[in-house]
Amino acid sequence: MSNGIEKFVVGKGWVTDDEKAKVQFETDATVKAGVVRWNANGSVPPKDILSQWQRLGMTFDHAKTLAAYQKDMDKLVKRLRSAPPPDAEQMSEMRAAFGSGKTVVNVLTGRKTYL
Hints:
This protein is of the alpha+beta class. 45% of the residues lie in helices and 17% in strands. The strands form three sheets. It has a two-stranded antiparallel ribbon with strand order 1-2. Strand 1 and strand 2 (13-15) form a beta hairpin.
């Protein structure tokens, strides 16, 4: 479309991104103690979605939700950084994918693996 608004089908009708976001908030997310999380996996939605929901006037505590998002990300990075190095099978798979003698860097942790 020339106006840049992507449209998609929900049910029988065509709707805008904002309309989809409202439906998504109401059906795919739950607010508990002011913090909104996805029903499917319990994670806080990405910041751009949170900002859209805030702009649309959806009821949740934006500041609390952003704090929960940061806490979740901190836990994830800590868990990833404490993960053991790749085992023999994983090393073999990485060599097959990237080639022997290469260096693979985990962009989330900065850990370098020399193949």
